[in-house]
From TrEMBL:
Transmembrane segments: none annotated. This is Prolyl oligopeptidase family serine peptidase. It comes from Hymenobacter cellulosilyticus. Residues 66-260 form the Peptidase S9 prolyl oligopeptidase catalytic domain. One of its GO terms (biological process) is proteolysis. GO terms for molecular function: dipeptidyl-peptidase activity; serine-type peptidase activity.
Length: 260
């Protein structure tokens, strides 16, 4: 990376929505950072079981797209909410039977922290995630409307009744045992609350989060007169790999440049 201008990466904890639990955060500021300026900010998140994004390792666990965004003049922020991996059973079980709810409250604590920073433009905060992160992006855009100006959700779970049984029922129990939990987490029930610009992306042969998830969301949006943006990758499974990954990240970057 010697030939590249990298932003500064900081790792630090803030308190979760329960007021007690430490949540680890990563903040990347642009190269040639000027604390007197106001910067747009992109929150990258996942939030689901087994995954830890913030690590005390090379680049704090960030990827080079985040460094690109910093070069382009964005602050880039990530928080591992309760429910994510490598923090013990109690931490991961905090979201049991209510996927999306505690994670959202913790992410909102992260937004609260960002808004306390004098160099973050509170009116220009965007959010992006894939898979469980796509579910969380769409959750944040609709269950906390107005918090984010722009969202990009990839391969998003929309309705947990359509997701893999061995995963879903481990964290949610069955739909018959936990109807309220499934109803609250079902993003079809929150489409009409959408504010800001939302782009959903899906591979047409996704065998993990089947295409039906985002198509049903798109149909519900059209039925209710809600505008959103939509892009598909024909022939791609759950993650857009190979040379087309460049196309994907160009698409995401352009969306933030245009709307944030």
């Amino acid at each position: 990376m010697a030939d590249y201008q990298l932003g500064q990466t900081k790792l630090f904890p803030i308190k979760a929505a329960d007021g007690q639990t430490d949540l680890y955060c990563r903040l990347i500021t642009p190269p040639n950072f000027d604390p007197s300026k106001k910067y747009p900010t992109v929150v990258y998140l996942y939030g689901g079981p087994h995954v830890q994004l913030v690590t005390d390792s090379w680049l704090g666990g960030s990827n080079l797209w985040m460094q690109l965004m910093a070069q382009k003049g964005y602050v880039v922020f990530t928080l591992d909410s309760r429910g994510s991996g490598n923090r013990g059973s109690a931490f991961e079980r905090a979201t049991f039977r209510q996927l999306g709810t505690q994670e959202m409250q913790d992410q909102l604590k992260g937004v609260e922290y960002l808004k306390s920073l004098p160099y973050v433009d509170a009116a220009r905060i965007g959010i992006h995630g894939w898979s469980f992160g796509g579910f969380m992006t769409t959750t944040m855009m609709t269950r906390s409307p107005g918090t984010f100006k722009v969202g990009v959700g990839g391969g998003p779970v929309i309705d947990w009744r359509l997701y893999e049984v061995m995963y879903t029922e481990r964290y949610m129990d069955t739909p018959q045992e936990n109807p309220e939990g499934y109803k609250q987490a079902n993003l079809l029930n929150h489409v009409d609350k959408l504010q800001g610009r939302l782009l959903l992306i899906h591979g047409t042969v996704d065998d993990v989060v089947v295409w039906q998830h985002s198509l049903s969301y798109l149909k519900a949006a059209v039925d209710k007169g809600i505008q959103l943006d939509y892009f598909v990758y024909p022939g791609h499974p759950h993650n857009v790999g190979g040379k087309d990954r460049v196309h994907l990240y160009t698409k995401i970057t352009q969306y933030f440049d245009e709307h944030l």
